[in-house]
Design goal:
This protein is an alpha/beta fold. It contains 12 helices and 21 strands. The chain folds into 2 domains: 322 residues, 3-Layer(aba) Sandwich (Rossmann fold); 87 residues, ANL, C-terminal domain (GMP Synthetase, Chain A, domain 3, 2-Layer Sandwich), CATH 3.30.300.30. 29% of the residues lie in helices and 24% in strands. Strands 5-4-6-7-8-9-10-15-14 form a 9-stranded mixed sheet, sandwiched between helices. The longest helix has 22 residues.
C-alpha cells in the first residue's frame, strides 16, 4: 500500500480546489497589507470575489524579469537606505524582513529571497517522503549551502520528515566518497550529475557505497537513460521540480508518470507571452500562485514549459500532474534587427479567432531573415490571410508570409516562435 506524507494528498481534486480557493482571499488580503508589490498587482481586484481559476486568470502574470527589476529599482532608489528591508531588498514582494526571516538567499540577478522559520518552508518534505525517505534516516545533502537556497531547501525538508542531515555541499569528491563510506547514509539529495561523479570516483578508489539506495534529485534534467544508470547500481532516484522563488512545485512518485503538483499552490499552464490558460494537455508556461504567507507570489510566471497530464496518478495522489520540465517559454527572437516576443504572436491571435494556433518560423542565413507565420485555419480564405499578414506587420513592424496549415498539425511543444536560421 502506498504511504503518504499527508493524507490530504489523496483527497478528491474538487475538494482540494474548494479548499485552496477558500483560503486564497485571506492570503491575498494579508499580502495586500504587507507586500506593496502584491498590492499593486491587485489594484482593482476584489480578492473576496476570486472563487476559482477563471477569476484568477483576470489578474496579470508577474514574471521573474519584473521581480528582478522591482528589486533593482528599490535598491537604487534615492533614500533607499531608509526603506524597510521588505521593500528595499525584496522589491515589495515579501511580507517579512530581518528578524522574521531566518535567512536571506541570492539567486542570479541577483534576486534575493527570504526564508522564515516555518517548518518545511520550501515545501520539499513530501517529495522526500515520496522518494522513500523516512524518520530516522540519514540524508546526505549535496546541494550548495552558499548564496542559493538549495541546501537549505533540502535540509529543512529532511528535518520536517524526521531525518538527520549531513551537509556535504558540492566539490571535494574524494572527501565525499570517504564521508559516505564512513557514515553509511540512507540516501542522497542533490543533482544527478554530482552523484554520478561521486559513484564514478568511488569505483576508481575501489570503495563500495552500498548504503545509498535512494536519491531525490533536482536542479537538472533527469532523463530515462540516467534513471537506468542509477537503477543498475541499486539506487532508486526520484526528481522534484522547484525554484528559489516558489519552492517545490511538483514531484515524482512511485507511479513514474509525470510529476504531482505540490499542495498549497495553484498551478496553471498559460499560453507563452500571455496570462491566458490553455486547454489541459497543451504545452504552455507554468504559472504558480503560492499560499506562502511570507513570500506570497501571485500568478508568478516561471518561464518554464510543461503540460497537464490527464487523470489521477496510479500512486493514489489526486492532485494535478504535469509532464515535467519541457523547456523555456521565453522565445523572444531578433529578426531583421527587431525583437519579436511571444506576446506579439498572442496579440495577433486575439485579433483573428479563426486561427486556433500559430507559430512564427524564422529561417534564412544570418542577415537574410525570412519570417513565416504557420497558422492553423480550418478553411483558409485569401482575404483572411491578407488581414492576418497585415496584423503581423502592424504588431511586429515586420513582414511575414502566411502559411495556412491544418488544425492540430502544429507540434504541441509550447513554441510560438521558432528560430530555424542557419548560423554557419
Amino acid at each position: 500500500m502506498e504511504s503518504y506524507y499527508e493524507e490530504r494528498e489523496t483527497i478528491a481534486l474538487e475538494q482540494r480546489e474548494r479548499d485552496l480557493f477558500a483560503r486564497l482571499p485571506a492570503a491575498l488580503e494579508r499580502a495586500r497589507r504587507r507586500a506593496p508589490a502584491i498590492a499593486q498587482q491587485l489594484q482593482g481586484v476584489d480578492a473576496a470575489a476570486i472563487r476559482g481559476r477563471t477569476d484568477l486568470a483576470h489578474i496579470p502574470v508577474i514574471r521573474k524579469s519584473e521581480l528582478l527589476q522591482a528589486q533593482l529599482t528599490a535598491r537604487q532608489a534615492r533614500g533607499g537606505d531608509a526603506m524597510l528591508p521588505v521593500s528595499r531588498i525584496f522589491g515589495g514582494f515579501s511580507t517579512i524582513g530581518w528578524g522574521e526571516a531566518l535567512r536571506v538567499f541570492a539567486s542570479p540577478g541577483p534576486i534575493y529571497e527570504p526564508e522564515s522559520g516555518r517548518p518545511d518552508y520550501w515545501g520539499f518534505a513530501r517529495s522526500l517522503y515520496a522518494a522513500g525517505f523516512r524518520p530516522g534516516d540519514l540524508v546526505y545533502n549535496c546541494f550548495s549551502y552558499h548564496f542559493t537556497p538549495a541546501g537549505s531547501m533540502m535540509e529543512t525538508a529532511a528535518h520536517a520528515v524526521g531525518c538527520t542531515v549531513f551537509p556535504g555541499g558540492v566539490g571535494q569528491t574524494e572527501l565525499q566518497v570517504q564521508a559516505i563510506s564512513d557514515l553509511q547514509p540512507d540516501g542522497y539529495v542533490g543533482t544527478p550529475s554530482f552523484l554520478r561523479i561521486i559513484l564514478e570516483k568511488a569505483a576508481e578508489m575501489n570503495v563500495a557505497l552500498p548504503s545509498l539506495q535512494r536519491a531525490m534529485f533536482s536542479g537538472e534534467a533527469y532523463p530515462p537513460s540516467l534513471h537506468a544508470w542509477f537503477c543498475a547500481r541499486g539506487i532508486a532516484g526520484f526528481q522534484a521540480y522547484g525554484s528559489a522563488d516558489l519552492g517545490m512545485m511538483a514531484y515524482e512518485t512511485s507511479a513514474r508518470e509525470g510529476l504531482v503538483v505540490n499542495e498549497d499552490i495553484i498551478l496553471e499552464i498559460v499560453r507563452p507571452g500571455t496570462g491566458q490558460p490553455v486547454d489541459d494537455g497543451e504545452v504552455g508556461e507554468v504559472v504558480v500562485t503560492t499560499l506562502n504567507p511570507d513570500y506570497p507570489l501571485l500568478r508568478f510566471g516561471t518561464g518554464d514549459l510543461s503540460a497537464i497530464l490527464p487523470g489521477r496518478s496510479p500512486c493514489g495522489r489526486s492532485n494535478l500532474r504535469i509532464r515535467g520540465w519541457m523547456g523555456r517559454a521565453d522565445q523572444t527572437t531578433k529578426v531583421r534587427g527587431m525583437f519579436v516576443h511571444p506576446g506579439q504572436v498572442a496579440d495577433v491571435l486575439a485579433r483573428h479567432p479563426e486561427v486556433r494556433r500559430a507559430r512564427l518560423v524564422v529561417t534564412g542565413a544570418m542577415g537574410h531573415d525570412v519570417m513565416v507565420m504557420k497558422a492553423e485555419i480550418a478553411e483558409p480564405d485569401p482575404a483572411h490571410l491578407t488581414r492576418l499578414a497585415d496584423s503581423v506587420r502592424e504588431l511586429t513592424k515586420l513582414r511575414a508570409e502566411i502559411e495556412p496549415v491544418a488544425p492540430g498539425s502544429l507540434p504541441n511543444d509550447g513554441k510560438v516562435i521558432e528560430d530555424a536560421r542557419s548560423y554557419d
